[in-house]
Predict the 3D structure of the following.
Amino acid sequence: MSAVCGPGVEAVTRGLGFDCHDVSPVASIRSPWDLANWTMPLLELLVVGGAIFALVHAVRRYRAGDPVNLALWCASLVYLFVTEPPLYFPEWFGLDTLYGFIFAHNQFTVQFMADRLPLYIVAFYPMISQVAYELVRSLGIFQRRSVLAGSVTVAFACQVFYEVFDQLGPQLKWWAWNTDNHIVNHPAMASVPMTSMLLFASVSMAAMTFLVVRLTGGPAADGGPRRGWSLVLRVLVAGVLTPPTMAIAGIPSSLFGGNSPNITGQAWSLGIELALVWLAGGWIVVSQLRARDRGPDEPLPAFVRFYPVLYLGGMAVFWISALPAYLTAHDGITTDRTPIGSGPYALACFIGSGLLLAALYRRDRTRRMAPAGI
């Protein structure tokens, strides 16, 4: 039995409908119509298209003299390739006793690394980081307030946009968590580990945004925007330094770990940190909207005007399709033997993300209606 397909991996992937022994070690391509369900090729289109849209937007801002968007887009990929391989193959990095086997993705149209890494996941990182950053930047928070305040708001924006996806994936077999892993995957909110909700959906993106803005947002030695190797090196540093911040944020819950972990204590610790993300991010947004000086008076870019609402609309369609099975689930398991996420939390995230967009559109409408010179 190879380390790539040990007993735990084999059990999880068979639950998803494929055999982890029968995969290509480097890359694989399959027909989108042969995937496990109809939502999967649409999810790929939504996410990969969003990443491309975000890249076009980032390049435009780079050419206009602001390298932050492009740096964040690229740093997201650096962060991806630093964190994902150890998660998929912990035994290769000597982490199997520390983390164990955590989860496996289903088979999508384009897949890498023994079918562990779908192309859409590669695209998801720069897409979601760009959505959160652009929402916060367009609200004027980075300009009017500190980089730290802007990054905290990014944590909130990422949480509400990411979790409408994260709470649905296991039910639709986009991926499956290894429920036998009690080191990382417990405690959980319904089927989703709370460490994933906090560390991956908020802390990592906030920390990466803070590092990117600090390292690339200031002027170069000649007074102009950073370009060339100086920008490349700073992007690499930001991406590599992001994972340690997740470990720091995980210290409070780790105090309840050990050989006999206190799951209740860990749940309370992670829950309090999640609540702080909501409270701090929401307070910063509200105070920004109430301020007289709201930051840059510029038109909304096409990316932030159109893509976030398209993303939420796509997720809403997926949730509606999954709702009948969700409502008839017994003990958190549907008739298709898939675990459900937390519907109430996903609904709260839909509301939170919708309110963020409403605030953004309201601010843009106010700007357009204001008399010239005001």
